[in-house]
Amino acid sequence: MKVKSYCIAFIVIVSGFLSAYGQNVSLYQQFNGRYDFTFVGNTMNLGENNITPGCADLVASSSSADLTLNPDQLVERAYLYWAGSGLGDFNVKLNGVDITAERNFSVTSNMQLPYFSAFADVTNQILSTGNGTYTLSDLDISQTLLTVGGYCQNRTNFAGWAIVVVYSDAALPINQINIYDGLQRVPDDLVINLSSLNVLDNNNSKIGFIAWEGDVNLATETFYFNNHPLSNALNPVNNVFNGTNTVTGSNQLYNMDLDIYDIQNFINIGDATATIKLSSTGDFIMINTVVTKLNNQLPDATITVDSVDKTCDSRTIVAHYTVANPNSTNALPAYTPIAIYANGQLIQTTATTAIIPIDGSWTSQITLNLPNTVPDNFTLKFVVDDSGNGTGIVIELLENNNTFSQLVSLWTSPQFNALPPQYLCTSDTSNYVIDLSAYLPLVLVNPSDTVTFFSTSADANADVNAIINSSSYVLTQPVTTLYIRLDNAHCFSITPLQINLKPYPAFSTPDGVTICRETEESAFDLTEYQNSIPAVATDSVTFFETQQDAENNTNPIQNSDHYLPNQSPKIVFVRIDNGYCFSTTSFTLTFYDVPKYNPLPDLRSCNEGYTQGTFDFSGYETTVKQNQNDTVHFYESLDNAATGINPISDPDHYVAYTTPKTIFVRIDNENCYSITSFSLTTRNCPPTVYNYISANNDSVNDRFVVDGLKTIFTNFRIEIYNRWGRLVWTGNKDSEDWDGRVKDGFEISKAPDGTYFYVIYLNDKDYPEPLKGFLYLNH
Description:
This protein is mainly beta. It is built from eight helices and 51 strands. The protein has six domains: 282 residues, no CATH class; 108 residues, Immunoglobulins (Immunoglobulin-like, Sandwich); 82 residues, Immunoglobulin-like (Sandwich); 81 residues, Immunoglobulin-like, CATH 2.60.40; 81 residues, Sandwich (Immunoglobulin-like); 90 residues, Immunoglobulin-like. A hairpin with a 2-residue loop joins β22 and β23. This is Gliding motility-associated C-terminal domain-containing protein. InterPro entries: T9SS_type_B.
């Protein structure tokens, strides 16, 4: 490669022509080596169309020509071209073998008449047949000539065929054969520039044409090579397209030309370009094929990447590559530069270190450190004869075959999701069967990676002793660490899997709970069980209304210290959680209504002394209850009533030794009880006066007795008067009862029998007036 911005070597560039329609003549194929070329072909015209009137029987449908090569001349390629007036006949026969056009061309004249040309590679047939006569048949344009009158009127009715034969010969020097084809008309000037030549020897250089519709009697065209007009014995300088075949020496190749010209005197050693100019001022000519033979000794560098060595998770690769010099005409010099690109980014340059002969090769390797800007999947491109800036130092036969590209994927270890420690719940931490495959979707990032389990890190790295029964692996320890190995096509990764076996929390299932509710707002305090249910104090306890919620730990009971169930009985589900595992249990809540009762009025009786009173409240057993099926008992304390012990046994004659006193009433149904109460109080009733005294020491009525006085009206005072109104005795709570004796001076004597009067001052707010009466004394 000389300079990358130059045109590719030997591509034909049509620099200018007037009123030219069709397909530009351009390079079709190139051969480098000990090659030469020749033409084989013939016209279908039976005579010169410029002097033969009319079209009847003018063009045949077949014609023949002979191929004669020396024994040392071996066919390399054979290309068949056929052409004619009209839109085209693309199916013909060569020696009876059906031929279908592989490529075709067309062009239109100034009179808007179409013409065609067709191409087929017939190398295999020529190799098989060898020297001999070749007949092209079934090329029929008769209908076109009969139906379109313009061709005969313009004398442009023609058909013909030709084979370009490229052959090798060991006696030949190293040549370059270029075959250019297309279909262009030449009414004026057609210029073709051949660039990037390196002519080392101009001997035997020649150029050949396949041209259609030249007329022998129209001497109006000229052929120039490097501004030198070409001619020979068959082709005058001013009539080069005149129906001749310079291979056979025939001048009856009506309306087609197979002409070859020597150009060795018109090209110089060291020439880098050549110019072809075709000119016609009157004759309508179509150029189909141009063939050149130049002694052009150049190398032709190619490069291939044979293999790329990669290591896992490394951005360093080793590329093995081969630089070759195939189908060339000269050796490739040493130190030909090589540029290496990754995704279009230049990453390194190197060069060959040896001269590479014709058809030789040179193999080497290079270590490449890829920058981080290059992705893991990239296109690696090697370009020979590239200094790293798109330019080279070597002129080559072909400048468009210096590149080799291939996709490279760096080897990376499999990606994975690192697994946190796994906690599994079991009732037996020494014998737990686990299916390790359950962890595959958790650890895998790329589903195409393979996964294997190992019991040790060393085994995982060595890929030995894999766990065989991974679907039913037995764990025997509370904590086990396994190793997961992930493999892709080239690399592997290892990640640990720690499995912790945790026991289910132990617990005590509470008994069913029953409450007696006084109102619908009566609630259960579930928190009372938070300490008694778990066997381990640190385990948490949560209450739920459904088993599913308990298992999912969703919708826990709120306000568990004041829980109001929506039905009775109600099952409460308990979740006991140790942070890793949980257990569930349940108990039943039942509520009953307490017995309804009637309020009881307080009872009052006479003070029997020191606030003592006797009461009958046995009737309250019926009065208090609203449901006659309920039972009623009376108690002296609230504790006794609540526990149902020590009921009062004599509610019909109950002595309250002090008052006021509260009596507690317990009303029971089948499930619950209610407690109410009433009070016992006493009042100071009027005392009872016994107004007869027989003071004779017979222990009967020996004294003046007033019941209900001393222990009740403790501030009383008694005065006794005789019938003449004289006070004979006074007493109070500290005095003995009067025994009928009176004090007379210093002596105490019996009072005379008879009637006396008493005055009792009770000194009680309820009794402001004293009690008065008489009594009778009889000794």
